[in-house]
Amino acid sequence: MSIPIKKKLEEEIQALEYELNHELPNELKRARALGDLSENAEYIMAKQRQDYVSARLGQLQRRLAGLSMINFNNIPKDRIGFGTRVVLYDLDRDTEVEYKLVMSEEADAANGLISTTSPIGRGLIGKKQGDTVTIRTPNGPREFEVRSMQTIHDEQQLGIGG
């Protein structure tokens, strides 16, 4: 797993745990002191925030646990997979585009970081240099040729991070 995304998730978990265990109980205590809870907007908002924080915390903890299960030995060394940098030739637009396949939390299409779960990411998984692939996008099918690729294993051997 990419270290920056793990750190980001751990930091968000830590912040949410602090809010859930320290800040929200104090807010609820202050709101209860204001009286009638049925019409107490501060209390209602704090309870709603508490529910949201609890749900988000559970979601992040499950995601972090799932990410820690990634086995880099299962990522192909000769085909496109998680962590691969790929240069594609867009046959329809006569241009080259470069992407890196990342986890959904790291995705930033404007900067060439596409999720392995996006239409392009899913379409590229398992392809090799020289392959042509048709990807179904929201704007219709697009055809790409895989011009070059550098897997996560290649980057680790070269000492490239990212």
What topology emerges from the helices and strands here?
Layout: H1 3-33, H2 41-67, E1 85-90, E2 95-102, E3 113-115, H3 119-124, E4 132-137, E5 140-150, H4 152-158
Parallel strand pairs: 2-3
Antiparallel strand pairs: 1-2, 1-5, 4-5
> Rounded to an integer, what's the Rg over CA atoms?
22 Å
Name of the CATH superfamily of the largest domain: Transcription elongation factor, GreA/GreB, C-terminal domain
Which outline best applies? elongated
Largest sheet, spatial ordering of strands:
3-2-1-5-4
Counted up, domains total: 2
What multimeric state do the chains show?
A: single chain
What does this protein look like?
With 162 residues, the protein is α+β, with helices and mostly antiparallel strands. It has two domains: 3-67, Helix Hairpins (Orthogonal Bundle), CATH 1.10.287; 73-158, Chitinase A, domain 3 (Roll). Helix content is 44%, strand content 21%. It has four helices and five strands; from the N terminus they run ααβββαββα. The protein has helices spanning 3-33, 41-67, 119-124, 152-158; strands at 85-90, 95-102, 113-115, 132-137, 140-150. The protein has a five-stranded mixed β-sheet. Strand 4 (132-137) and strand 5 (140-150) form a beta hairpin. Helix 1 packs antiparallel against helix 2 (41-67). The longest helix has 31 residues, at 3-33. It is elongated and about 70 Å long. The chain starts with a helix and ends with a helix.
